[in-house]
Specification:
Elements: E1 3-4, H1 5-28, H2 34-59, H3 64-68, E2 71-72, H4 99-123, H5 127-156
Antiparallel strand pairs: 1-2
Helix pairs in contact: 1-2, 2-5, 4-5
């Protein structure tokens, strides 16, 4: 059971886009406070930016086509895969978000991506792939923390 790195990266890109669409949909839904709507827009923009950054980082790889053609021994769409991404909202049963719900939801979803990058770093060979995904994990974690901290600060205003 194997999967091309290109397919896994596409799943990650799609996940970012799904998150952006999800938060955009919540922002236009009924019952959201103005504060929550502003944060939802910011989170949507963050997800789209992260997808673009992933593409930029991939294109900086000197052997970009070969890089994406690398095969890994795991399929992300299988139920038990540590590479599985699911954009299901943990608070989907609510019609109105508060800042704590939103922060929890965003944290869980972005942590999934960090975990996947770390796992890809462990699965990948050669060392250049390990470094690439390790760097992505560190960068994603730092950006996620920055976003969450900003959300928490905004909630206290």
């Amino acid at each position: 059971m194997t999967e091309k790195l290109e397919t896994i990266v596409e799943h990650i890109r799609d996940y970012y886009r799904q998150l952006a669409a999800h938060y955009q949909g919540l922002a236009v839904g009924n019952g959201q406070s103005e504060r929550v709507v502003l944060v939802l827009g910011h989170v949507k923009d963050h997800a789209l930016k992260r997808a673009a950054i992933l593409d930029e980082q991939l294109k900086k790889q000197p052997d970009y086509p070969d890089f994406l053609a690398t095969w890994l021994k795991e399929k992300p769409h299988e139920p038990n895969s540590t590479l599985r991404l699911d954009s299901a909202d943990p608070t989907a049963n609510t019609t109105e978000y508060n800042m704590d719900d939103l922060t929890e939801s965003v944290t869980k979803q972005l942590n999934k991506i960090v975990t996947i990058y770390r796992h890809l770093a462990e699965l990948s060979h050669p060392e250049s792939l390990q470094e690439f995904f390790g760097d992505l994990a560190q960068n994603e974690e730092a950006e996620s923390k920055r976003l969450i901290n900003g959300m928490q600060e905004f909630a206290t205003l």
